[in-house]
Structures are given as structure tokens and as C-alpha cells.
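Anyone opening a protein record will find just a pair of labelled lines. A complete record is shown below as an example.
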Amino acid sequence: MSAALRILAALASGLLFGLGLALSGMLDPARVRGFLDVAGAWDPSLVFVLGGAVTVSGLGYRLSRRRARPVLATRFDWPAKRRIDAPLVAGAALFGIGWGLSGFCPGPAVAALSTGASQVLVFVAAMLAGMALHDLGRGVAGRKDAPHGRAPA
């Protein structure tokens, strides 16, 4: 398994993901906020995007559980933590609040950088600053737990 092949697969996956986000309208923060406004002027058009994403993800997850190892890696990188705890709930709440206020979540925001819109640049800068503060806080607190999505080495 060459590193070049893994990089190429990651690039192709990212391009396909970004194209799907653009075609579905997920790069338009007003449309996303309309979808999240279930008590107001709700725009249900993104339900199909959500349904398609959950279906593809669910099928991919089920298929991957039947394999001994991934196609382009030596092992799967399953999350080490499985229980719902206060940091997970707090992080999910912050994510949801940020998504609702801005109309962006990380994937669509990165894809929307291609538009050059100032609101996207501000969001991504704030997102990167938040990630840096999180990492700084982990270092200051001296935590040694594994990052999300990675099993301890």
C-alpha cells in the first residue's frame, strides 16, 4: 500500500464530498439555517441530503465491520471511547449552536472556502482558533487520553 495511493484516494474522496456538498446546497448558510429552523420557516429540502448521507454512511459502516482490514490501511481506526459523557454532550451542543448560528459546519465550510466569501473565511478562522484552544487546553490540563477517533498507541 503506497502512501501515494492513499493520498490519491483521500483527495478523490474529498473532491467527491465537496462536490456533493456544493450540488446539494450545503454550502449556502441561509439554506442550512432554513433547514434547522423547524419552528419557523422550515426548508425541508436538505432532508434528502441528510437521508442520503445517513444511508451511505450506515451501509459503509456495516460493510466495513465485515472486513478484516481497510483496503488502503493495515487496520481500522475505530474510536477508543464508546460512552456518552459530559464532554461529548458539551461538544455536540457547541457544534449545534455554532452550526445553527453560522449555517456552516466544518466540512461544508472547508468546501465553501472555494467561494472566497468573507463569512466563510471568518468561520474557518474561528474554527481553527477553537481547535487550537482545545489542543492548548488539553496540553495545559496534562490529559493523555487519545484524540477523538483514534485508539491509543
Notes: The radius of gyration is 18 Å. The longest helix spans residues 118-141. Helices lie at 3-24, 29-36, 47-65, 86-102, 106-112, 118-141.
